[in-house]
Amino acid sequence: MTDEYAIAGVPMRWVGPLRITGNVANTETEVPLATYESPLWPSVRRGARISMLAPDGIVATLVDERMTRSVLVEALDAATAHATARQVDARFAQLRDIVRANSRFADLVAIRHEITANLLFLRFEFTTGDASGHNMATLASDLLLTHILETLPGISYGSISANYCTDKKATAINGILGRGKNVITELVVPRDVVRDRLHTTAGRIAQLNVRKNLIGTLLAGGIRSANAHYANMLLGFYLATGQDAANIVEGSQGVTVAEDRDGDLYFSCTIPNLIVGTVGNGKGLPFVETNLTRLGCRAEREPGANARRLAVIAAATVLCGELSLLAAQTNPGELMRAHLHLERPVEKIGQET
Amino acid sequence: MTDEYAIAGVPMRWVGPLRITGNVANTETEVPLATYESPLWPSVRRGARISMLAPDGIVATLVDERMTRSVLVEALDAATAHATARQVDARFAQLRDIVRANSRFADLVAIRHEITANLLFLRFEFTTGDASGHNMATLASDLLLTHILETLPGISYGSISANYCTDKKATAINGILGRGKNVITELVVPRDVVRDRLHTTAGRIAQLNVRKNLIGTLLAGGIRSANAHYANMLLGFYLATGQDAANIVEGSQGVTVAEDRDGDLYFSCTIPNLIVGTVGNGKGLPFVETNLTRLGCRAEREPGANARRLAVIAAATVLCGELSLLAAQTNPGELMRAHLHLERPVEKIGQET
Amino acid sequence: MTDEYAIAGVPMRWVGPLRITGNVANTETEVPLATYESPLWPSVRRGARISMLAPDGIVATLVDERMTRSVLVEALDAATAHATARQVDARFAQLRDIVRANSRFADLVAIRHEITANLLFLRFEFTTGDASGHNMATLASDLLLTHILETLPGISYGSISANYCTDKKATAINGILGRGKNVITELVVPRDVVRDRLHTTAGRIAQLNVRKNLIGTLLAGGIRSANAHYANMLLGFYLATGQDAANIVEGSQGVTVAEDRDGDLYFSCTIPNLIVGTVGNGKGLPFVETNLTRLGCRAEREPGANARRLAVIAAATVLCGELSLLAAQTNPGELMRAHLHLERPVEKIGQET
Amino acid sequence: MTDEYAIAGVPMRWVGPLRITGNVANTETEVPLATYESPLWPSVRRGARISMLAPDGIVATLVDERMTRSVLVEALDAATAHATARQVDARFAQLRDIVRANSRFADLVAIRHEITANLLFLRFEFTTGDASGHNMATLASDLLLTHILETLPGISYGSISANYCTDKKATAINGILGRGKNVITELVVPRDVVRDRLHTTAGRIAQLNVRKNLIGTLLAGGIRSANAHYANMLLGFYLATGQDAANIVEGSQGVTVAEDRDGDLYFSCTIPNLIVGTVGNGKGLPFVETNLTRLGCRAEREPGANARRLAVIAAATVLCGELSLLAAQTNPGELMRAHLHLERPVEKIGQET
């Protein structure tokens, strides 16, 4: 590592506004997206415009939030691992107090465990205020692990991180047990808007969603990943807001649902692993501060509220891009035409690349 | 989308040098990493230093390369889908000629198919020269799909992209059938280097790898993802070299192998889905051009050679960070100490967060 | 193991007839099902009756057949593994001749490989005549592995079976690369039959299929398993016809598609891993011989034709039970009522448990 | 369905005895296995003999038990689904009382939920006494679902079974959240026994386990399935004891761990989804009653104790066969020789096919 410090300048644009309602925010806001893939901007913009045509816009419901870290404990045998797990469960209140005593924001909300052979995997789950919480969870887990090792017999250190978390790898556990913000977005698009703005029908989008996102991913051996391109929108949004963008790995694991409701389109994106924060690494950079402020995520609010707001804005952005691309793919040739015009200053419609 | 253009400036540093040999490159080079997570730099740097102590350094073997796009064809019934698949197979040479006639660099190397009900999923596989190839594959697939629809009976357009590709979603198919560059890196670390530089033993790293990366991910319901944090290194490298970093989703699906060989450590990272290019979107940005040039990936070479060089450098970078973190996690408290020093200008050792 | 030989007598009934057409068989036949779960019989029977109402009955299309065995080769390093893989590919004709010289029925049709670190996984794929082919594939693979180890340098024995086959474990590879018979069944049920016999509508079955089989399994972290209960029918059929019923593990990995086509129901089951034979272990038992004969699978035909006939009958049986259960689950309380009557001699309709 | 009743007579033998200790049973017992694959018997027998050489035999630790059924509720929108989930959580005690009032043995122990779009998946988890519990869980879930639909607003019936259970399909959820008995078996085999009885070394078994069961399955896109052939032993045991053998699908999803401990072999099988009962369907057949009695699983015990005893015997049987096959596969040619002798009355050693 030389002494050079430099900057990778990723092109960034604001698109929108998009309209959001729901249990976290009622707002209209533009959103910043940093990407090398310029078709992302018009793709999200098209979805944003449609959100503005609906009185409630995109309804975003946050249903869970937690950050996790799993540790590995090696026991003498399975019976000792089992006894340890039961002891850990019994001492939950005490362990929670240890966390609280050492952190202003981290709070232990659950412990899950699984035993294989003589190996005990403990998954600690925390709320972490406005931080995405990776470091907070690691520090708290280190305390918990140290305490457990010191106070229970027959066990020894395995690892401070044991992939049962799971951080930045594609697994099923994050969706099933929760990791990050779990946000569901919904938008009902009237029949004429589907026709005039998306150049397709609700029935064709619903059918494509079943065949491509559900069956296509299933045949590919996918794991909880029924969508077209959540990763694209998340990457752009994460980079623009100072997030650790490697978390798009689990972010990509979400489910798009589309239904033809008498010609209107019900369109929904469920994103169980949105990992965002408004404080922490990357947040001190001037452009990040500016962006977070403009998004209304630097306001005086109770701890966690700014991060939840950021999460639902991220989720709504995902819906905009997902809707736009799926609509484009119902029409032969539309995606290709968008790509051919990639370098020209015209509106492009879909983007997956 | 307003008229504003801006830049998300991601902090970037060069670390290294690291030494690489193998069937693509024999070189010593520093590597650029752009990230908001500063512990990534010292983590990779520690691995790079170890690579310089081995005469052959990191041996990187590229075993495959291809870019893919799947299309969906709707048939009258399964029998028609089956007949179509057979016809497509029979016409492979003709389809390849169509691609060649329309692209200087894209070459059709294989077609795979799978039928479910009356739905035919065709997966076109191309080599794409020095481009990562997303757009090239989409354009070629559009031509192929149009030709197939026009010349075979009983079928109609389903989708230009059908998730059987699979782009930016976690699936098994990319590892099994190939997508991107498949690169295997290997490094043998002598016993005393393991002790002095990594503060651990080969046996402990090997054991941790089995328990964390193999068993831990398996229990989490992971899919082809036995590693600690490939996504971190890939994100930093992709951003610094103008890649579409959303491809870290499939990039994260790789396998670390560690063996204790009489006290020496055999350490290997297999990364089947490295998706990188030296031309295309993002590559025209001045800092990207500078970086690619400094990496030796802008030289006059046969088409594809610069991208292959970039791929093995990316893969070797992954190994450096993976080795460093795994070593750190064998020691209680080491990861925590690194995180606590996060904001200070001292060397940090591991990073996963 | 004492000297006692005994019999586990599993209750068996014939249900049907069901009507089958397609590229393998045009027939009407009853089918035997051996099970401890008596509701299976009326469930399949209801589907069979519906098949008899359609002129073409259940259209069964066999699209692939092969039996596989993977072996593991340890190489000096990845480069040697890569060189070995290329040599194996280059010698395909020679390897095929070795198989042919040692077996009347086994024929090598493809070799697939994947390298991780210095480990080379070779997946040999055979046609095996009328046998399901496990043993034939193992013996042929042993010959091939021995030959490869004797003639290529730098490699050594790893394992005669390496889980990349994959035998009786749930994986994605069997569906993607093929293992066993791949059979697609389709049935169009007229609107009034859906109403009168299934007491539901095409729309409700299609919607339930998306929500339960596709989305429900996806959320559960399923792998290529979008169906309600293929395993039940396969178990009953396998036991009744002398198959190795442990292959229901991969048999359970199939996909149900249901569509509302103007009120008629398009219903399809794709079963990519049907592993059945008409010769081999279990086939010599008198009741098995009787059953196979009654199914028309002991006729004088070209090698493989009897097994293919058995496969499409098995697949059609699966469709009958799947259709019946899904229909039942569209109606609140219907499944419960069936279970409550479990011990009584009345017709029951659905069965999953 | 004709009026014919018949029997599929599956060959059955008792093998053993094997020795079991642990938190459920301390016993020596032979075990019955019904199968068409005769090499299974000597394979399990070899493992059983080794268990008798260890003072504690196979240590079997039962760490969890529950039977599950998921139902699907359709809500007006995600917000209503979220509100419903919270209400269901808040009413847990009341829902448990409903189950208790209607069943002598079923007890509601947990409810899990996941929301996607406007769809609420509720996973009810029960203990079910000595029954495997499929029907008991279905009946209780029907009551619960009816009550929830009648008392909460904005929701309607989706399905009585929603694949989030998951029954007889390969998923990750059963291992993560639990379904059936979760039993861990461990056996330490002294170095000389490994050499004399298994003709191999602890190191070679440990290495093969990593490469075949962990890496091989991972590459195949497996889901929580790191073993050689659990399905074989489970099928034979389930058929011999009147179980619904289709549950080998989830039974096959377990993890083998093998370690070289200074030349001795630590060998462990974790089987999280053992689904067995001593009452219910199939249990009234005379040979089943005889077998259960001989296994000591018809004794006067507290509800559930007989089923737990049966579970640990099943799990120990799995270990015997798994150990035997893995040992055989460390030796080139051994598996082939066993297969060649398949029809002759000699001892065979390994069996996977």
Explain this structure to me?
- 4 copies of one chain form a homotetramer.
- Chain A has 353 residues and is of the alpha+beta class.
- Chain A folds into 2 domains: 10-64 and 180-344, Alpha-Beta Complex (3-hydroxy-3-methylglutaryl-coenzyme A Reductase, Chain A, domain 2); 66-159, Alpha-Beta Plaits (2-Layer Sandwich), CATH 3.30.70.420.
- Chain A is 40% helix and 27% strand.
- Chain A is built from 12 helices and 9 strands.
- Chain A has helices at residues 40-52, 78-90, 92-102, 134-151, 173-177, 191-198, 202-219, 230-240, 248-251, 286-294, 305-329, 334-340; strands at 6-22, 27-34, 58-75, 107-116, 119-127, 155-159, 180-189, 255-261, 264-274.
- In chain A, strands 1, 2, 3, 4, 5, 6, 7, 8 and 9 form a 9-stranded mixed beta sheet that branches.
- In chain A, strand 4 (107-116) and strand 5 (119-127) form a beta hairpin.
- In chain A, helix 3 packs across helix 4 (134-151).
- The longest helix of chain A is centred in the last third of the chain and has 25 residues, at 305-329.
- The radius of gyration of chain A is 22 Å and the shape is globular.
- Chain A starts with 5 loop residues before the first strand and ends in a 13-residue tail after the last helix.
- The model of chain A is unreliable at 342-353 (pLDDT under 50).
- Chains in contact: A-B, A-C, A-D, B-C, B-D, C-D.
- At the C-D interface, strand 1, strand 2, helix 1, strand 3 and helix 4 of C face strand 1, strand 2, helix 1, strand 3 and helix 4 of D.
